[in-house]
Amino acid sequence: MNKNNFMKAMSMIDEELIKEADTPYEDKTVSDNAAASFSENDDPTAVSGVEVYRGFGWRKFLGAAAAVVLVLGAVGGGAYYFSKLNDAPVVSEEDENADTSIYERIKAAKDSYDMSEYVWNFSTGANILVNNKSSYKNKLFDYLDSLEDVKEVDDYPTSFRSVRFSFTDGDKKLNYDFSIRENGYGFWQVTDPENTVTLSPNKECFYYGKDVFEKLLNEVLKDADSDTVEAMSKASQDEIMGFVSTHLEKSDDKAVFSPLQGALEVEMDHYIISDKADLTNALMKYEWVKIKESEFVYNNYYEMGIRVSEDGYLMAVGDDPDPYGCYKLKNEEECEKLSADIKALLEYDTESDDASSEDIKEVFSNIIDDPCASTWEGTIGIPQGGQYYGTIYRNYNISDAESFINEIASLEWVTCSDKECEDDSGKCWNLSYTYLMESGYIDGRTKDNHKRYFKLKNERDKDKIHQITDKYITMMDTSQLAEKLRIGIDNYDNLESDYVFEGNDGYSRGHSSLRGHLWYDAKNHKMYMNGEGTYDGKEVTVETVMNGEDVSAYRIIDKATGEAFLEYTYCIVSPMIPRSPVHYVYSAKSIERILAPAMVQAPEYNIESRDIGGGKTEYQITDNYYDSEVSHKIVLTEGGQLISSESNGYSFRLENYVFDSPDFTMEDVGPIYESIEADQ
């Protein structure tokens, strides 16, 4: 629907309200009213289709139509007012109750009035009669009398829902209406139903509070049917368009992200809205429902004239927003998509200044004395159990640190925010605690330890960063061997082999010896190993399975008793869980982690290699990092597949192995994994 059609539809609400006003209250039932209100074919305010919104003139609707339709249309007296707009209604100048408030007059004579209950929602159209002769009348006045801090007001902002209590005397000489909106504003009004004349004083307005609306809405909806309850939560696209565009138009282009209510300034992120119309259209793509303000969840939300959260909540900002509204996504599973749509239309609010070459040289100055670098790919962090399975940490040497710095500083850089650097997910070089992102960002410290952030002024220079790093930075021998092992884990299709394990069992510290068979589906990360031998002083059988990348389990059974004495599911970083003595993939990953541990300082290893024939190479690794030398000896194929490893009394080797057999088959490890998981 374009703006002109929408305005035309809004103007038709007057006619609908007049029709309702001319219908005697007692002749309307809940079901009749619901049917009249919910049928899109019968409702003259109903429209079909929503066109992409590109402008913000909808504010005119709130300034004119809403000021009349939403304010007065929520009560029956408003309909009478509309019907006499062109007739210059005559206001009675004689009112013997002029010194008594409408509220006091109704309360004093409440026993002579019938009270009807109505609800109204902009997105469904007409008022809905819920209860024709309510028994809540006495409780209503008792509740209103108990309220404190009720303030009389001259004006009030608009909102999209209201509850109305209508009082009619037996002779139908006068009608009284009390209407309260979801923004907490309420008013009392007097009309003459016979002559449709608004009496003087015709209206008294107060601020009661949003909690009062919530309580009264809950009370009225207790007697409502399911259609009415559903109708009161409906939020049409026209309503969302008007709500969002009006508030965005009144706001500046700024957006502030807060992780929670009451967050400190340092915890907030500041953005610029790239296109308000696109943001309005993005929010209109989703289906929303109305909620109470007390249901809004203040986590990970943006404030930009509206408040919208990554958890799918939407409301207005400010103490007295006009119009007022509070919503949430109808489909919670769309929250992630909503968050992505919002972020796509926000840019960091930072002022960029040109950075001098000296600024860049200063943050890289540490590598003059320590010409080393490292990279980290995959999951960030070092858990208690060690390095994550997919983490790739590598160490490098810088051949000519001074020339490297000069070439990086020769590019054009500008200052930027820390958030821009943090959000970058590309390859990052750690250069003595200054971080260089190949996507064009620098996160560093000055000599006096102040943080500085820079980004390339021209994106076309990104390729130059890659050229400079290739020119001056080379991977250390230890990391090259670690990389060969990593690639060799799954750069083939399958492996079938016998295996032999010898070493300490880790429990009784006695000697253990296991022999068995291995099947490994490298492309799907499925592995099955079985075997038997001596372990922990017992004659045992062992099963180890890998049911997908880093999803493992094992079971060791005592042959003498037939009972499993070790049975666990685990991953490579599971803390405090005994590991299987035989796990081919984890054995290779463990050696990789020894050669390239997740730490800034590179390990001090000497590596000697020799060709032992058959396409295999033996590597003798001497660790000089500690006072005593610890030697590792491994044999790898040309493709990096682990054939054997020996270290400190431990040995593991493959025998009679076959890679990429066309006849390869293996056990279905899924049921075995589930069995161990159930029994552990």
Describe the protein.
The protein is α+β, with helices and mostly antiparallel strands. It contains 20 helices and 36 strands. The protein has an eleven-stranded antiparallel sheet, with helices on both faces. The protein has a nine-stranded antiparallel sheet with strand order 8-11-15-14-13-12-9-10-16. Helix 11 (about 235-250) runs antiparallel to helix 12 (about 275-285) and helix 14 (about 355-365) packs antiparallel against helix 15 (about 400-410).
Characteristics:
36 strands, alpha+beta, 20 helices, 680 residues, 11-stranded antiparallel β-sheet
- Percent strand equals 25-35%
**Helix/strand/pairing category:** alpha+beta
Please mark out the parts with pLDDT under 50 across 5 or more consecutive residues, or reply none.
1-95
How much helicity do the residues have?
25-40%
Biggest sheet: strand arrangement:
31-30-29-28-27-26-36-35-34-33-32
Main beta sheet: 11 strands, antiparallel
First and last CA, distance: 61 Å
Count of beta strands: 36
Number of helices: 20
Mean pLDDT: 82
Oligomeric status: single chain
What's the Cα radius of gyration? 37 Å
